[in-house]
Each structure stands twice: as C-alpha cells, then as structure tokens.
Amino acid sequence: MKPPKRNSRKNISKSIVFSLVFLVLGFIMAYSYSLSNANKETEGYTGGAFFEQEERYRKELINQQERNKALRDELQEKQSEVQEYEKSFADGENRYTEYAKEAEELRRYLGVVPVQGSGLKVTLKDGDYNPNSVNPNDYIVHESHVFQVINELYISGAEAISINGQRIHANSYIVCTGPVITVDGVQYPAPFVIEAIGEPKVLSSSMKLSGGIMDQLVNDNIIVTLDEGLIIKMPALLTES
C-alpha cells in the first residue's frame, strides 16, 4: 500500500516553516538579550566615569577655594604689616620733626646760634630824681627790675633776650652796683635796653597787663618805653673752647 504523497509533503513543509520560524525567533531573542546587556554595561560605565570626573572637579574646586582663602589671609597680613610700617615711619618723621624743632629752640635759648626776628624792645630809665626824697635809690633801675622784665618776656614766649646788645643765656647773672648793672661780668650804665625776639603783640600785651610788670615799674619811679615790631638781631654767644 502506498503512502499518501501529498500529506507527507505538507507535513515536511510545515516542519521546515516552523523550524525556520523558531530559528528566527531564537536569533531575535538572543540578539535582543545581548543588546540589552551591552546597553546596561555601557550605561554603567558612562555613569561611573562621569561620577569620578565630577568628584575630581569637586575636589579641585575645594582645593582652589582653600588656596584662595590662604592667599587672602596672607594678603591681609601683608597689608597690616605695610600699614604698621607706614604708621611707624610717619611717627618717626613726626618725632624727628619735633626733635629737630626742640633742638633748634634749645640752641636759640642757649645762645649757640645767631638769631633774628621781630620782637619787642623795652627801655628802662632812671626816674627823675626828687631832691626832697630821702633815698635816691628809689629812682634808679636795679637788677630786680631787669629780672622782672626778663622773666615776664620769657613767660610770654620770648625766644631770645639781650641787655644792651649782650645776649643772655640760662646761666647769665645780673648784679646791680650803684648806678650800673653787671651782666656776665660786663658793666652797663642806664638806660638799659632789653630786647626780646618773639611775637610783638603778645610780648607787649603781657607787659601792659593791669597791675602787671609795667605798672610795678612805674610805681617804682622807673621810666618804661616799649617799641613793637622791630627786627632784632642777636649774635651767638662766645663759648670757651
């Protein structure tokens, strides 16, 4: 008995078709699975690298910020040092100026340098003698009168003082001997001209104060005259070598 040829062929064809279909499906599934794994690995690799790079940038930024802070602190410290130096330098200049001014004033006061400037001239003359007076000494200029004038002028800011052209200093001595006075061993007769370098208005005002030196001199019968605004010159004192 012969097998039916037609059905066999159909079954073989179906088997081949199904085999091909399953083969294709298997290939597609395998390809999809491998592609999925590859994408996952790629994604994992990309994310990890990006994270590492971000972490590295973050650390570099932190380091740079710390470096900037250290530089700012160093700059502030240097600026403070410069300010302290400028302050000390300015203080030094001020002290130097003050010392130089004080030294110049001392030289003028001690008489070791010649001086010139405006000032006041005070002339003291013996009073007109009254024959009926018991004591003629009541009408002549004494060293006390000269000392009163000199002290008042110094108190009023006189920088230098001379008597009859002779400059006086801190150790000068004045002695009255009858109608003359002796200044540092040199005798001078009346009238006595006392010159002082300083502010003329101030010196003159101090002499004219009510109840002051000028009034006392007049009460002692001394003739007093004041000349303001003169240019006065005084030589340096001769010092022993």
From TrEMBL:
Keywords: Coiled coil, Membrane, Transmembrane, Transmembrane helix. Residues 54-95 form a coiled coil. Gene3D superfamilies: Protein of unknown function DUF881. The chain crosses the membrane at residues 12-33. It comes from the Bacteria. The keyword Glycoprotein does not apply. The keyword Heme does not apply. It holds the Pfam family DUF881. Belongs to the UPF0749 family. This is DUF881 domain-containing protein. It comes from Planococcus halocryophilus. The lineage of its organism: Bacteria, Bacillati, Bacillota, Bacilli, Bacillales.
